[in-house]
Design goal:
Layout (H helix, E strand, L loop, with lengths): L2 H16 L3 H14 L4 H16 L9 H21 L5 H20 L11 H13 L3 H14 L4 H13 L3 H14 L2
Helix pairs in contact: 1-2, 1-5, 2-3, 3-4, 4-5, 5-6, 6-7, 6-8, 7-8, 8-9
Length: 187
Amino acid sequence: MNQDRVQGLLALGYECLKNADLESALSYFDQALREDFEDGEVLYALKCSGFWKERLSPEALPEDPFARGDRVLGTWKTFKVFLSRISGGYERASYAFKRLVFGIALKAYLSVPEEKRPNPDPELEFRLGRCRKALGDYTTASAHLAKASAGRKDWARCLAELADCRGLSGDAALSKAGFREAFYLDP
């Protein structure tokens, strides 16, 4: 058994997940399992892959892109409960699966046809912003969240997400002001 090879295969699998390619990731995880069938991280990655494989199948997801994105993000909450019940807690794997899920949801929301979008569409902008934020694109996320909050001035949750995004991108003053405004609207 070659631990360097196992780690390399896991890294390739995680990279596939970050690019929203679960099938290729599974292939790498299976190869890693053949190298070391007792490696905890390999088993963890395979369990997580199994969880998502059935839930991301075309038959399991709605046709409507908006509903598809919502279903995937809703399943993310279930996945976090699933993670708390399996042993391991491998941060690298959890992060890669987060990128998979939010990447798939982002693609779904971006594929909502223009003619089906009200102008402006704060709900869609909010969802796009949350996905971009989870993927680490704070600048684009802030732009989406700012559009969403402009469409609904009293939306505390959106203001809090925007404030968090601004804080993550290094603008502490705007972040604090945004959190304060969100708190006044809905503590």
